[in-house]
From TrEMBL:
Protein name: Glycerol-3-phosphate dehydrogenase
Highest classification ranks of the organism: Bacteria, Pseudomonadati, Pseudomonadota, Gammaproteobacteria, Aeromonadales
The organism of origin for this protein: Oceanisphaera avium
Record-annotated FAD dependent oxidoreductase domain positions: 9-327
Domain Alpha-glycerophosphate oxidase C-terminal, chain residue ranges per copy: 393-496
Residue stretches spanning the membrane: none
GO MF term list: glycerol-3-phosphate dehydrogenase (quinone) activity
GO cellular component terms attached to this protein's record: glycerol-3-phosphate dehydrogenase (FAD) complex
Cross-referenced InterPro entries: DAO_C, DAO_C_sf, FAD-dep_OxRdtase, FAD/NAD-bd_sf, G3P_DH_FAD-dep
Length: 505
């Protein structure tokens, strides 16, 4: 295919949260944007987090006050901008004096409460654990504080949908295979990973937001030396039958100075994580190992009355965090004596203009600060566009988020669709918000939703996800657009994949 005639303003490489955030911000400021992602949206790090919108309480021990302050401020904004996929979550921190003294925890929680303005979240307080607590009897005192929960993969998809509404061209399953400067333009070659079709584009600015692949993009695509090194750190999580019936999450201190979260997950389960292990290899092949499983089970067993083992794990996932390797050359995977959990979660940019068309590369970052990162990234390239508009995403509601609160939206759906089972209503509210009307409108009974794939997943929802949210494979739907892979059996999952295959033929 010949090169498209009219140059784009921006091409973004990478369909994780930072990439779609930049595409959304730039498109909303009037730039002509294309985003390419070699796999599904949020198919790597951005769907493998602890599912938290948080300031990072433990980062205070590393004196990262600026990072925590930024994240805490963003936490409030995001809870307002995406109320369907984000909501407040109360955390309990059991106190173990031999690990951290109470005065240290009190100071840390005081800073956490006051580094940024709180509007929706309650402050911290001390608590006593009763005999009915799910914790072991030795743990009698602790603290409570507030943070936020997020469906990370849906956050990415909703940002991509919002970017598309602003005019961006979103191309998942499209790999950037070559990018070369030609005076004041980038010549970019893309390949459809399903068909192999090649397309060529020109763009004024190229943005490298490839996450764990941000450094390798330089060697494999741009043919330039990487300006910064990334330290790849594996974080793994396990999902087990729910350890307790309380609505609270727990943050557990361990003797190795790490912390582990135990979070209520998808109603019937507990999510436990994360680990921090240096990783070498292809980030696409990352997986939990037996040692990590044992570690997470051991930490949980030291705190909770209900004991678990690897046999109780119903699902696990691992992701690779692309952390900034400080005091190192631009050679990836260089030896470092700094423990992985102490490496900064902040982000930085590298803007290269010395040989012509600008190249902006994103290194590091965390889920909570994605919007701030995106705004700063577009600010960095704004001098190259005379027509660019002002920042706008601070109060931008993501698709489906225009409603009062979960309770009122559930009531409205029950009134509009009284035949819907309550568990489906609850899932639609926290996954789609008002977007669920796209596949519910016109239905008068469950059979109107088409094929029943199990677990409350019906054909109309699947068709919507394919048409509007770029779903392609069954795993896109079962593990990123939803977590229904936890409840559908193998036969049901195969039926879904068969339907998607037949639908494309």
């Amino acid at each position: 295919m010949p090169t498209t005639n009219k140059p784009l303003d921006v091409i973004v490489i990478g369909g994780g949260v930072n990439g779609v955030g930049i595409a959304l911000d730039a498109a909303g400021r009037g730039l002509n944007v294309l985003l390419c992602e070699s796999h599904d949206l949020a198919s790597a790090t951005s769907s493998s987090s602890s599912k938290l919108i948080h300031g990072g309480l433990r980062y205070l021990e590393q004196y990262e006050f600026c990072l925590v302050k930024k994240a805490l401020a963003e936490r409030e904004l995001l809870l307002n901008n995406a109320p369907h996929i984000m909501w407040p979550l109360r955390f309990r921190l059991p106190h173990q004096p031999h690990l951290r003294p109470s005065w240290m925890l009190r100071i840390g929680l005081f800073l956490y409460d006051n580094l940024a303005k709180r509007q929706r979240l309650a402050g911290s307080n001390s608590i006593n654990f009763s005999a009915n607590s799910p914790l072991v009897s030795e743990l009698t005192q602790g603290f409570e504080y507030s943070d936020g929960w997020v469906d990370d993969a849906r956050l990415v998809v909703l940002c991509a949908m919002a970017a598309k509404q602003q005019g961006a061209d979103i191309k998942p399953r499209t790999r950037c295979i070559k990018a070369r400067r030609q005076q004041d333009l980038w010549q970019v070659t893309l390949q459809d990973t399903q068909t192999g079709a090649i397309s060529h584009y020109q763009t004024r600015v190229l943005v490298n937001a490839a996450g764990p692949w941000a450094s390798s993009i330089f060697n494999d695509v741009i043919a330039m030396p990487a300006p910064k090194a990334l330290r790849l750190v594996k974080g793994s999580h396990i999902v087990v039958p729910r350890l307790h019936d309380e609505p609270h999450a727990y943050i557990l201190q361990n003797s190795d100075q790490r912390i582990v979260f135990v979070i209520p997950y998808e109603g019937e389960f507990s999510l436990i994580g994360t680990t921090d292990i240096d990783y070498v290899g292809d980030p696409a092949l990352v997986a939990i190992d037996e040692q990590e499983q044992t570690y997470l089970c051991q930490v949980a067993n030291e705190h909770f009355k209900k004991k678990i083992s690897a046999h109780d794990i119903v699902w696990s996932y691992s992701g690779v965090r692309p952390l900034i390797e400080e005091h190192a050359s631009a050679q990836p995977q260089q030896e470092s004596s700094q423990q992985a959990q102490h490496v900064t979660r902040d982000y930085t940019f590298h803007l290269d203009t010395k040989d012509g068309a600008p190249l902006l590369s994103v290194f590091g970052g965390k889920l909570t600060t994605y919007r701030l990162l995106a705004e700063a990234g577009v600010n960095a390239i704004s001098p190259f566009f005379s027509h660019i508009k002002h920042p706008w995403t601070q109060t931008a509601i993501l698709p489906g988020g225009h409603f009062r609160d979960h309770q009122h939206l559930q009531s409205e759906l029950c009134q509009d669709y009284p035949w819907l089972p309550q568990h489906m209503v609850a899932r639609f509210v926290r996954s789609y918000g008002t977007l669920c009307h796209h596949f519910l409108y016109g239905a008068h009974q469950l059979t109107d939703l088409g094929i029943d794939f199990g677990g409350g997943l019906y054909q109309k929802e699947v068709d919507y996800l394919v048409q509007a949210e770029w779903a392609y494979h069954s795993e896109d739907i079962l593990w990123r657009r939803s977590k229904l892979g936890l409840v559908l059996n193998d036969e049901q999952q195969q039926q879904l994949q068969h339907y998607l295959t037949q639908r494309r033929s």
